[in-house]
Amino acid sequence: MFRVVILGAGNVATHLIQAFEKASNVEVVQVFNRSKKGLESLPFAGNSTTDINHLMEADCYIISVPDDAVQELSESIPFSNRLVVHTSGSVSLNELNSKNRRGVFYPLQTFSKERAVDFSVVPICIEAENSIDLKVLNELASSVSKSVYEVNSEKRKQLHLAAVFVCNFVNHMYQIGFDLSEKNGIPFSILKPLIKETAAKIENASPKEMQTGPAKRNDQNTIEKHLNLLEQPLQKEIYKLLSQSIQKTYGREKL
Amino acid sequence: MFRVVILGAGNVATHLIQAFEKASNVEVVQVFNRSKKGLESLPFAGNSTTDINHLMEADCYIISVPDDAVQELSESIPFSNRLVVHTSGSVSLNELNSKNRRGVFYPLQTFSKERAVDFSVVPICIEAENSIDLKVLNELASSVSKSVYEVNSEKRKQLHLAAVFVCNFVNHMYQIGFDLSEKNGIPFSILKPLIKETAAKIENASPKEMQTGPAKRNDQNTIEKHLNLLEQPLQKEIYKLLSQSIQKTYGREKL
Q1: Distances A248 to A218, B165, B230, B234, B235 between C-alpha atoms, Å
Q2: Burial level of B248, CB count in 10 A (0-12/13-18/19+)?
Q3: Which of residues 6-65 of B touch A (CB under 8 A)?
Q4: From CA A92, how far away is CA A129, in angstroms rounded?
Q5: Does the pLDDT value for residue A138 go beyond 50?
Q6: Does position A253 have pLDDT exceeding 60, yes or no?
Q7: Which of A70, A102, A191, B207 has a CA-to-CA distance to B151 between 20 and 30 Å?
Q8: Which of A167, A191, A217 is the closest to B166 by Cβ?
Q9: pLDDT confidence bin for B115, thresholds 50/70/90
Q10: Would the pLDDT of B131 be above 80?
């Protein structure tokens, strides 16, 4: 049985706790969070603390706090030579304080508190300083997910950057689509089958093969019409820049 | 039984023919296409012609050709006072020649020849000049889809513009994610669960509620790191502009 302490009470921490609670070989022995309020909102009935000096004995300490708080929290841990990992895509392993054995346990998914996540399909990227710790992280990750990857800090940063494009920026495209439809009295739901199909299309083909639309066709006439329809300057800029980038991808440099 | 003639042999025409072939109350009596080659590649065994003067008698003629070819093709039709519609999102009803009764039959989906489409969930936007023709289009659309909407030309243009954001631009974000992962020796497949979840999240919530990421959190440190990682100037520009737009959406104007 692996004994785990979670440090943090945000979206990732919440989903991680829920996933570990279902795993047969992992026990979340404690959750630490600076504020009591965060702890109270967690779906966790076990031991919890707001005092870093009261951390319990465990095989692995998982820091799941905002990126810019990881380093400081790792420094404030009172013990040494134990396995301490973080869950962040963009933070290096060596931003953790070196008094403990360091590692990374990065679940590559978008988490919202109110939405259940099937952790078994979430890729987990692990990294450690030695093969024994890597094995521990591999077993921990395998206890909740079928996809475990060993990824070093450099590659993980690139992966996190790619994730911003395919998740955060994609969601912003949905937001603009939402704005345009609602503004014109069209229910956003009419766009949902298209959104679903666009995501489904790249399951078995590369995005390049699946590209469609006016920019791909170099249909300048439709591009101009669309630019005239857009009222918000930022949306106009986005339309121009992304069309230009699509045209460049398919070998047409001019917009 | 509705008798339909399809004019065109592209992606939309192909999928439309296949959908109508499955409908019990519609018969595709003929397919017209200027080039014989296009006709030969169609999965259609019925009557076909490359001669516009040989069009057969039908209840509805569906023009499914590139946007900039719709008008000319509608002019070249030798008869008058029949129901002639097009399938384009961005072309007005009145770009069709007025010698015939005009209409629109716009399936809001992204079609690729090699990928099967479940037409029953594809929203079809219809428009006509009179209520009898609208009823015909409604029955035709209902024969292949559960989602039929009456949408006028103005709204349809806005909808098509919204579709460019949620489909074409989204796919381009996938493409950039693909490039970044492949360039760093990371299989693109690691990003697929994230892509799927990002699309699934907005099924029951608005995109605004579901936004995550460095720009949403105003995490300037991560934004700067990402900009430094990006080598391609256009990708850098896209990252900057979309982060700025997300920050503006959530009330933070400065990048």
Answers
A1: 10, 18, 17, 9, 11
A2: middle
A3: none
A4: 12
A5: yes
A6: no
A7: B207
A8: A191
A9: confident
A10: yes
Contacts with B159 from chain A: Cβ below 8 Å:
181, 184, 186, 190-191
**B151 near A229, Cβ under 8 Å?**
no
Q: How far is CA B206 from CA A110, B35, B202, in A?
A: 15, 45, 6
pLDDT, residue A252, reads 61
pLDDT band at A75 (very low <50, low <70, confident <90, very high): very high
CA distance linking residue A49 with residue A40, whole number of Å: 11
> Which of A:160-219 have CB within 8 Å of B?
160-178, 180-181, 183-186, 188, 190-199, 201-203, 205-217, 219
pLDDT interval class at B111 (50, 70, 90): confident
* Mean pLDDT of all residues in A78-90: 97
List of chain B residues whose C-beta atoms are within 8 Å of the C-beta of residue A227 = none
| CB contact at 8 A, B167 and A194 | yes
| Chain B, nearest residue to A247 by Cα | B172
**Residue showing tokens 């024969």:** B143
- Express each pLDDT in A42-72 by its tens digit: 989 999 999 999 999 999 999 999 998 999 9
The ipTM of this complex is: 0.93
- Which candidate from A190, A206, A242 shows the least CB-CB separation from B172? A242
Q: Which residues of A touch B148 (CB under 8 A)?
A: none
pTM: 0.92
Q: How far is A2 from chain B (nearest CA, A)?
A: 26
Q: Yes or no: say if B153 and B129 are a contact pair by the CB < 8 Å rule.
A: no
Question: How many angstroms separate the CA of residue B156 from the nearest CA in chain A?
Answer: 9
Containing A128, the helix (H) or strand (E) segment is strand A124-128
